């Protein structure tokens, strides 16, 4: 695992700290420090200092089918997610970058602690509500 001491400006706001390097290529680096930070080559970067550690980082790939939004939220609570693909028969509601989204499919990268919900009631709940 590589820690990176960073000092950069993002949208006019200065950000400093130490983060874990998650991904990097020639155009950008992705850091994790209580949320994902993308460092692009065209950003104002004051300092990026990598530091090797003796720790290792592990990535886990998981697949789910027929999972409720509540169960999905519990599984992802306080966890960094590198990539997420969702499909649903009910519209999925998500607030991402302060923008509400609603779709039957969602394909996102680099999320921390996402919260998903559906505003629709499934047919079982409708039957229960009617009687």
Overall description:
The protein is mainly beta. It folds into two domains: 2-52; 69-119, no CATH class. The protein is built from two helices and eight strands. The strands form two sheets. Strands 4-3-2-1-5 form a five-stranded antiparallel β-sheet, with no helix packed on it. A three-stranded antiparallel β-sheet has the order 7-6-8, with helices on one face. β2 (13-24) and β3 (28-32) form a beta hairpin. The N and C termini lie far apart (56 Å). The relative contact order is 0.16.
Summarize the topology.
Elements: E1 2-10, E2 13-24, E3 28-32, E4 36-40, E5 44-52, H1 69-76, E6 80-96, E7 99-112, E8 116-117, H2 123-130
**Fraction in beta strands:** over 45%
Helix percent reads: 10-25%
Cα end-to-end separation: 56 Å
Largest sheet: 5 strands, antiparallel
Shape: globular
């Amino acid at each position: 695992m590589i820690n990176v001491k960073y000092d950069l400006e993002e949208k006019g706001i200065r950000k400093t700290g130490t983060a874990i390097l998650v991904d990097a290529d020639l155009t950008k680096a992705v850091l994790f420090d209580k949320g994902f930070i993308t460092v692009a080559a065209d950003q104002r970067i004051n300092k990026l200092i990598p530091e090797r550690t003796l720790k290792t980082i592990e990535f886990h790939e998981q697949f789910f089918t027929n999972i409720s939004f509540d169960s999905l939220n519990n599984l992802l609570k306080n966890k960094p997610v590198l990539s997420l693909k969702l499909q649903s028969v009910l519209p999925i509601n998500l607030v991402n970058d302060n923008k509400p989204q609603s779709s039957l499919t969602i394909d996102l990268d680099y999320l921390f602690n996402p919260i998903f919900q559906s505003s629709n009631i499934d047919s079982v709940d409708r039957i229960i509500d009617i009687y």
